[in-house]
Amino acid sequence: MICPNCGHDNLPGDEECSRCLQDLTQLDRPAAQDRVELSLMEDSVGSLHPPEPIVADPTTSIGSAIQMMLKNDVGALLVVDAAGKLLGIFSERDLMGKVASPDAAYTELTVGEFMTANPECVNCDDTLAFALHKMDVGGYRHLPVLNDGKPAAVISVRDLLRHITRLCKDR
Q: Which residue, 104, 126, 134, 155, is the most exposed by fewest CB within 10 angstroms?
């Protein structure tokens, strides 16, 4: 990176110029080009105002979990212990990829057997770009949102697309 102060050619990633000690950190940050980019970079996950998550304990049957997901029109539910600590997430993908089989007895199995344990999470104050990046890199459609270490919500790709669409409509 070329220092704008003294013209010295520094190593990429240097936080300050090795010649004049000018702060270079601001020069490495991307700049938003429009409202969508600005929102993704600055707005928090909490700004989506996600509803409280649908939760189940690990002994909840698959049949009950399916009914909970259908009743609440959600694609995932959070699996928590008695103290409310997040243990995992049970999603449509878990249902189709791990549970679905020719056996009809799956409805009696428990979500604890098929949930994705220790899922990637975001915090309410993380940026939308951070959440979107986690979803993209991990291939997730749903991310638990934590507040003080406890499940506060679940956001989905659909929530982020809805937010971006609203920003584009408001132009």
A: 104
